[in-house]
Amino acid sequence: MDLQMLSNHARTLTTKAQEQIYTTYIEAIDDRTLKRRFEGVQIFYLPRSALSTLTKRQYITAFIKGAEYPKEGMFHVHDAPGLAEVIEKRGKKLFLLTVKLGLSLEFLSVLLDHVGDDDLPMERKKYAMIPKGPHRMSMLKLLNNQALVCAPVLDTCKFDQVLPYLSCFPLEVVDAVREPDVYNVALHKEHLIYEKEEEKPLKAWRMQDFGSEETADAAKSRFQWGFTCEGRWYFFREMPNHDVDDDDEDYREGGEGATHEVIDVPDVKNLPGYVFRWQ
Fold this sequence. Notes:
The protein is α+β, with helices and mostly antiparallel strands. The protein has helices at residues 3-8, 16-32, 48-54, 57-66, 80-90, 92-100, 105-112, 124-127, 134-145, 213-219; strands at 34-38, 41-45, 154-155, 171-176, 182-187, 192-193, 205-210, 225-229, 232-238. The strands form 3 sheets. A 5-stranded antiparallel beta sheet has the order 4-5-7-9-8. The protein has a two-stranded antiparallel sheet with strand order 1-2.
């Protein structure tokens, strides 16, 4: 990565139209962000359907136009059509992070010339060594918030899986059980893979977490699948006759989040005809 190029050039949001179109998109992102709390950690993640909805080509193109991305200039890599194309091919998650954090499209253009969504999550040590300059803080903000778009798809038949951050654990609901480190949980159906496609997703799983590999290995035979995350092991087994309490607000602090099929967003001033219909 050309770190010096990332460091040297930045452009702040300076016009009312730019601020308004960023605000419009940020509100749509926030509306679809699922928020939970687990083991003292705030969880924020965008489900797969939300990622797909918010990164359709027509929305990306409209945003680039509304954000007044320069058609020509020496401080970015891609022209406007080229930027929309590279975002669609390999930068949808990075695009949403850039918008959510209020970072410039010039920064995103340079970034996408070196990395893409497949590089997420990015290691802080590898990418945080940007020389001092306007883009240094942009890159650090992106690194510190990338969990928003990193919720993984988990296989319900495997144990050798790694969750990058507990803050992107695709939880829907969690109830504590009387046993230490044991929970009844519901996971987001878009983030689970089952052995058979026709298999009906379970409403609930019994989950237990372990603080050492030795104790986790000793208990593995009692579970069907699992993953490791931040030095702990999380294992799951079926609970086909149990529904997790969907009204337990103690474990849903921070808001339930929401997903909507269609949202009509008011016209952005100075951009006649641009109404984002998220569907």
